[in-house]
Design a protein that fits this description.
Shape: globular
Order of helices and strands: HEEEEEEEEEEEEEEHEEHE
Radius of gyration: 17 Å
CATH topology: Rieske Iron-sulfur Protein
Strand content: 25-35%
CATH class: Mainly Beta
Bound molecules: FE2/S2 (inorganic) cluster
Length: about 230
């Protein structure tokens, strides 16, 4: 997200507010630490190095909250108006980087919070080659109860029981260096419920108290295939 994109988010949010007398509540972006995305060698990740259609995982804004980083390989929709389960409205600004094709989302399913672990993942992006009879191409699909999200449109819900889009991770792209930073979230966060439900397992996986620690400075981006031993593809 360039600075002007942030201004555009605020303007679009204000426009939604002015236009809709029925909007229950307009959600503002929630800003956390500005964190550089780095590769496995701790070098700044370049947006152009992301393989289109590949699932990448990073952790933000907490050390135990996984997120997807995706190069969709095609331009995303701009200024998508979305709604949370509890009626909050917000405007997703679109992707960043070349062709505005790079997007970030919380990888915690908005239904029952299935998420990728080191052992197994039931949720992932499907490009054309990974789609099946159950999962459509170019979607993020959760095999638990088949919620499906459109990452090119703010992860709006296309199918299944999820009551709201995946929470978006706000990204900044620096054109000069081609680097990426995560700066905040937009939409319905589920972090409190996530920590309440999975606290015990998160303590085992990340160490006592670590999962809730805020990420600062940098976060490592890893292909899902390297992060996770087994990917369930339905
Ligand atoms: S947890 Fe993802 S669809 Fe139910």
């Amino acid at each position: 997200m360039q600075r002007r994109d942030f201004i555009r988010i605020c303007a679009a949010t204000a426009a939604v507010s002015a236009q809709s007398a029925f909007a229950a509540r307009d959600l503002k972006p929630r800003f956390y630490a500005r964190v550089r995305l780095v590769d496995n060698h701790r070098q700044p990740l370049k947006a152009s190095s992301l393989t289109a259609g590949e699932n990448y995982i990073f952790h933000y804004p907490f050390e135990g909250t996984p997120c997807f980083l995706l190069n969709l390989g095609r331009p995303t929709v701009r200024d998508v108006r979305l709604k949370t389960e509890h009626g909050g409205t917000y405007v997703w600004p679109g992707g960043v980087g070349p062709n505005r094709a790079v997007v970030g989302y919380s990888a915690i399913c908005a239904h029952r919070m299935t998420y990728p672990t080191r052992q197994i993942s039931f949720i992932s992006f499907r490009d054309r080659s990974a789609a099946s009879k159950i999962s459509r191409p170019h979607t993020i699909h959760c095999c638990s109860e088949h919620s499906e999200y459109d990452p090119a449109s703010g992860a709006r819900v296309l199918d299944g029981p999820a009551p709201q889009p995946l929470s978006a991770i706000l990204l900044e792209h620096d054109r000069a260096s081609d680097g990426l930073h995560a700066v905040g979230t937009l939409g319905g966060e589920m972090f409190n419920a996530f920590f309440a439900k999975f606290g015990f397992k998160l303590a085992l996986d990340y160490g006592p108290g670590r999962a809730r620690r805020h990420v600062s400075d940098q976060t490592v981006v890893t292909p899902l295939a390297d992060f996770c031993k087994q990917q369930v593809k339905c």
